[in-house]
Amino acid sequence: MGQSGLGYLSEPVDYPVDIPGCDSVDPPEEEQFYGVMTTGQEDYDNPAYPWLTSKKANAMSIAVREALPPQVDVADGSSYRFGGDPLVFQPVAGADGAYDPGTSADGVVSRDGVDGSLTVNVTRVDDGPKPCQAGWLDARETMSDGTVVDTRDTWDEFDGDRSQSNIVRMYARDGSVVVASSSDRNSDYESTGSVPLSIEELRTIALRPELLSSTPVPDGIPPLPISCDTNSEGTGQFSSRTVDRVNASLDDFWRAAEISVELDRPLGSMRTSPSGSAGACGAVKAGDGTLLIRVIDADYEPSEKPGGAVTLADGSHFRDDNPGSSTMTLDGDPIEEVTLVKPSGTRVDVQIAARATSIDRPLLQAIALAVAGSVD
Questions:
Q1: What is the bridge-based pairing of β-strands 347-353 and 333-341?
Q2: Is-contact 121 179, C-beta < 8 A?
Q3: Which terminus, N or C, of the chain has the lesser number of Cβ atoms within 10 Å?
Q4: Angle between helices 240-257 and 361-372 (to 10 degrees)
């Protein structure tokens, strides 16, 4: 049984062994572990990865989300990057010459209310698929166009906590290698006993043509969204379908309002908050400013006597205590913000950071109402 010095065990490897789809099987190798150190300064402008632009990473990220089964929700942000957006492909981190980490997107996903993880990695090789090796795969499929798909169902164990994993590794003809894996470990790295994605579902993700390094970015794909967060864990749960409903409401509002402010992407560009599925957030460039929207499914209590705030007919409160007096800035631009708290405790924050903009306070309030009307 595989073992390292930190209470780690892996599934034992049988050899010799016949593996479906393999003419021959090499003996197993001793497990190797690689560490990738990031500085927080990686960028998509990497000479070693000229194909990985921000627009390409966005197209790949969209493709992975579109390939998720309807029963699977994005539950939380990155498992490895604090405050990182879920299932968003990152710039390639630095590593030594022995290991090329490629670009990865990961997140906590939920199926039937049970959390697990999903990770998709894309890199390139020059020498084709790795030879069949015991302990590396359970089966190999060679497709009619030469694409090779390896699959594996395995487990490992940390300090007695055993986790199951499904893994699909796809070798494309253009040299791209896509690895889609799902385990039953949640955001606390604890096993939940249920792997959210099957081998076949991971195979569907790995075979998405948008993930190939040679696939051009479709027209109209914007760069990756501006980073955002709700800065609160909250107490509720925002499913991807709830976020889709909020986005549809925002887009309908913007079309009907006919505001003469240019956006760099649809107003309905919210996604599950990196800090937890109790929130959703989105940020867009609006004219000369940055428009940020946050909604948190929490237990906020409107003040009984909110000084200067507006109380709506349904009991919601706009907390406009000191309109126009904020001293907060974003990259030097002053921030104007409104906060709406519903009787349920759901909180909506809408802010614009700009030196001069045609998005005024009533419009911020109207956006908050559009969000509030599509939740709870």
A1: antiparallel
A2: yes
A3: N
A4: 140
Q: Measuring CA to CA, which residue among 139, 90, 146 is closest to residue 119?
A: 90
Q: Which two tokens stand for residue 166?
A: 């499904």
Measured torsion, CA atoms of residues 117, 120, 125, 127, in degrees rounded to the nearest 10: 60
Dihedral angle computed from the Cα positions of residues 229, 90, 109 and 12, in that order, rounded to the nearest 10 degrees = -140
Residue tagged 């006597």 (tokens)? 305
Instruction: Note the pTM of the prediction, 2 decimals.
Output: 0.76
Mean pLDDT, rounded, of the chain? 85
Q: Pick from 339, 341, 236: which is nearest to 297 by CA? A: 236
Q: Indicate the residue type of 290.
A: T
Whether 246 contacts 368, CB under 8 Å: no
Q: Residue 112 region, left (φ>0) first, then alpha (ψ -120 to 50), else beta?
A: left
Residue 134 has pLDDT above 80, yes or no: yes
Has residue 331 got a pLDDT over 90? Answer: no
Specify the amino acid at residue 369: L
- Distance, in Å, from the CA atom of 50 to the CA atom of 52, rounded to the nearest integer, reads 6
